[in-house]
Amino acid sequence: PDLYCVVGHPIAHSRSPWIHARFAELTGQALVYEPLLAPVDGFAAALAAFAARGGRGCNVTVPFKHEAAQCASQSSQRVQLAGAANTLTVQPDGSWHADNTDGLGLVADIVQGAGRSIAGCDLLLAGAGGAAAGVLGPLLAQQPRRIVVTNRTAARAQALVARHAELAALHKVELLAQGQQGLEGDFDIIVNATAASLAGGAIPVPAGALRPGALAYDMMYGPAAQGFLDWARAQGGQPRDGLGMLVHQAAAAFALWRGVQPPAQQVLAELRKTLS
Ligand code: ATR
Question: Which atom of ligand 1 is nearest to the CA of 65?
């Protein structure tokens, strides 16, 4: 069977091996997908050793997504804009092709999982690190009316917006960076792409930013997402954690590698059951 992996540090907690094994089972694909722990300063060496063992493709998680984008000899436009990759595929000449399916995963879970349309709505993206950069392009492609990027460090939000200005114009989306002032009551969808909860920080958007019934999406899941989801519910929003994004980004990677679309919604339902 063909060999794949997810590489990160730490990696033992990763649900990706379970998700991909289930995809393979349900689509009849013969593959092995393993967790691969790389030393923090040893990503490139771990990747080379994996390729030498015959590895065909690799998902990349924290903290290696930036390095993954750099080590590839070819990369998608999404990766070039994000500066981060989560999916690597071996090319016939042995070099790596990099893609980023995080944004596709987020969009698929908002549309199919939460049943929301992004087109025409006002969206607030909190955060301007790798997680936010990885999803901005695919969010723009859904043609919301407006995306506001807000971040603790304003300069980072401005840089992210500047990098995506051309793509925003192409999709006719108003894209801007803004501080916490003036965000009240304006948004149909809020996406939390910050690490504030891990850092023990406050909710990274001001109270009142959500319109009634707005979707409040945290890209994390489990205990790390709980504070934001509780806050969103108390604000009259519809909370949703990032478990669906995890499954859908995996499904998009699986489809790139195998040319087969796995049943992501079914596997998400199964995963929720095993975690509850
Ligand atoms: P990631 O790849 O997870 O996005 P990152 O590049 O370190 O990691 O970015 C973390 C994001 O969470 C950033 O937007 C960061 O804000 P800064 O750019 O100001 O650092 C945000 N973040 C982290 N801790 C935070 C806190 N306590 N409050 C608000 N935002 C926080």
Answer: 2
Verify that 132 and 228 share a domain, yes or no: yes
Same domain, 17 and 30: yes
pLDDT tens-place string over residues 109-158:
999 999 999 999 999 999 999 999 999 999 999 999 999 999 999 999 99
Q: Give yes or no for a contact between 202 and 123, defined as CB atoms under 8 angstroms apart.
A: no
Contact 109, 248 (CB under 8 A): yes
The Cα-based distances of 225 to 90, 194, 200, 239 in angstroms read 34, 11, 12, 10
Q: Please indicate, yes or no, whether the overall pTM of this predicted structure exceeds 0.95.
A: yes
- Measured in whole angstroms, the distance separating CA 215 from the mean position of its chain's CA atoms is 17
Residues with C-beta less than 6 Å from any ligand 1 atom: 127-132, 151-153, 156, 194-196, 199, 201, 204
Helix (H) and strand (E) counts in the chain: 11, 12
Distance CA 18, CA 29 (A): 14
Q: Which two tokens stand for residue 82?
A: 């994000």
Domain membership of residue 11 as a residue range: 2-100+244-275
**Are both 169 and 201 inside the same structural domain?**
yes
| Residues sharing a CB contact under 8 Å with residue 169, sequence separation 6 or more, in sequence order | none
